[in-house]
Amino acid sequence: MESPKALGLGSSLMSVQELAKEPMLAIPQPYIRSEEEEPSIPSHGSDSLQTIPVIDMNRLVFGQTDLELENLHFACKEWGFFQLVNHGVESSVVEKLRNEIQEFYKLPLEEKMIYKCKEGDAEGYGQTILKNENQTVDWEDRFYMITNPIHRRKAHLIPELPSSLREALESYICELQKLGMTLLGMIGKALNIGKGEMEELFEDGLQSVRMTYYPPCPQPEKVMGRKAHTDAAGVTIILQINGVQGLQVKRDGIWIPVNVLRDAFVVNVGDVLEIFSNGLYKSVEHRATVNSEKERISVAMFFNQNFQSEVGPAPTLLNPQNPPLFKRVGMESFFRDFYSRNLRANEES
Fold first, then answer.
1. What is the per-residue pLDDT for 33?
2. Of 337, 146, 128, 341, whose CA–CA distance to 224 is shortest?
3. Binning pLDDT at 50, 70 and 90, where does residue 183 land?
4. By the 8 A CB rule, do 330 and 310 touch?
């Protein structure tokens, strides 16, 4: 097997986790962040420090519904991000997944590489292929998989995972599917388009997970765990695995650290929901920084429309005063084009 530290053109940076285990006098050039990456505001010591909104799922569904719907509408419109508390997902399911993902990233590289990304495929475990000298690479290892519809799962990924991780992941996916559909229904109500219309659109939709490992870095200010991006999804639900902070959200040109509350999920509006709301809700840029002493691990679950639907503004929101800002395109075409653009961007950046 080729060395995980190989940095020549055309080589695979198979594991930043392995690279970070070795003594390092200087950060390898492909990982050096661009000068255009703006600094964040300080995470401590500022009275004016902004924080993303917090939404109480229990109130949203069973309690002060109208007030919490207003809070949800504000969060999606003004921030594009919020923390979700009292979400109803069993703590035992979450803790089991946390433990199993941490154990997965302790496996020898050879065992993790069983699930490596195949040429031209976004799914699987791995890192970036170096295509040119100027390419900038994120300081992360990731494992991305489509989880729904079931027939779109890759045979060498979820079915072949260690049994304890596979069972923990399946239980988590089941819980998150229920939460995600309920949340999307409430977002439909907040948009005044009706809960049922939203649920029908996302019923048996495209869903995927991304397990990401950010190793510690001796010079964290020189690298980016994950570059600034938006998500091509309806909504994303993020679970912080090991309590190490690093997520940042861009607001008014400033990068704001997200201090994740214990037992909370972080939820963000994706590109599909921005289009669906005709620009009312915002899919905002976010990024991940890294730590000098500890690894950070997260798992994100992405919820999209079903493949039979079209991505476009909700017809009930359109009128002469609110004309469509986006063209309509088939969901499968939207998803395919996004990933082909993403793969090309990885090669050309």
1. 87
2. 128
3. very high
4. yes
CB 312 within 8 A of CB 274: no
According to DSSP H, which parts of 114-193 are helical? 163-190
Predicted confidence (pLDDT) per residue in 42-82, tens digit: 544 443 468 999 999 999 998 777 899 999 999 999 999 99
Whole-prediction pTM value?
0.91
**Distance, CA of 236 to CA of 313 (rounded, Å):** 19
- Quick one: 99 exposed, middle or buried, by C-beta within 10 A (0-12, 13-18, 19+)? middle
Map residue 250 onto helix, strand or coil. Answer: strand
Per-residue CA distances from 65 to 39, 62, 84, 302 (Å): 38, 7, 15, 25
Taking 3-state DSSP, the helix, strand and coil percentages for the chain, each rounded to the nearest 5, stand at: 35, 20, 45
SS3 state at 257: strand
Mind listing the pLDDT tens digit for each residue in 132-170? 667 788 999 999 999 999 999 999 999 999 999 999 999
* Angstrom distance (rounded) from CA 313 to CA 309: 12
Q: For the chain, give the number of residues.
A: 349
Q: Tell me the sheet residues that pair with 256.
A: 249
In angstroms, rounded to a whole number, what is the distance separating the alpha carbons of residues 183 and 334? 23
For residues 258 and 81, is the Cβ–Cβ distance under 8 A? yes
SS (H, E, C) 280-323: CCCCCCEEECCCCCCCEEEEEEEECCCCCCEECCCHHHCECCEC
CB atoms < 10 A from the CB of 39, how many? 8
The whole-angstrom separation of Cα 222 and Cα 97 is 31
Instruction: Provide the β-strand partners of residue 236.
Output: 268, 302
Backbone phi, psi, residue 182, to 5°: -65, -45
Helices of type H across the chain? 16-21, 57-62, 65-74, 91-104, 109-112, 163-190, 195-202, 271-276, 331-348
Give the C-alpha separation, 142 to 125, whole Å. 6
Residue given tokens 């990068």 in the structure block: 255
